[in-house]
């Protein structure tokens, strides 16, 4: 599996049998704000903080992550991709991307 730099918000995944790197860059987060008609990044974090994700949410988050890492891929193409463990794998990938972007993992393991 290709190495991903979690400090930079990167996540590695196998999609369509190919190893890929994904990253929710600032531009990718802005894309998601627009897609979900949200005013700011805190509203985006709150939107996904509930842990409830629709299939279209998964497509948008994963698509933004792929584009943030430099891939030229549309949401329609992402919707047709195959993920390890199917829909559960796609949900886990989207969650990992959001956690990496918002520093959830680092905040949970930080010591005072």
Topology (SSEs and partners):
Elements lengths: L9 E6 L2 E6 L2 H10 L5 H9 L5 H14 L6 H5 L6 H17 L1 H6 L3
Antiparallel strand pairs: 1-2
Helix pairs in contact: 1-3, 3-5
Structure notes:
This protein has 112 residues and is mainly α. It is 54% helix and 11% strand. The protein has six helices and two strands, in the order E-E-H-H-H-H-H-H. Strand 1 and strand 2 form a beta hairpin. The termini are far apart. Mean pLDDT is 87; it is low at 106-112.
Index terms:
112 residues, mainly alpha, two-stranded antiparallel sheet, 11% strand, disordered C terminus
**End-to-end separation:** 33 Å
Number of helices: 6
Overall number of strands: 2
The SSE string, one letter per element, is EEHHHHHH
- What fraction of the residues are assigned to beta strands by DSSP? 5-15%
Query: What's the helical proportion of residues?
Result: 40-55%
Q: Estimate the global geometry from the Cα principal axes.
A: globular
| Main sheet strand line-up | 1-2
Structural class: mainly alpha
Question: Short description, anyone?
Answer:
This protein is mainly α and 112 residues long.
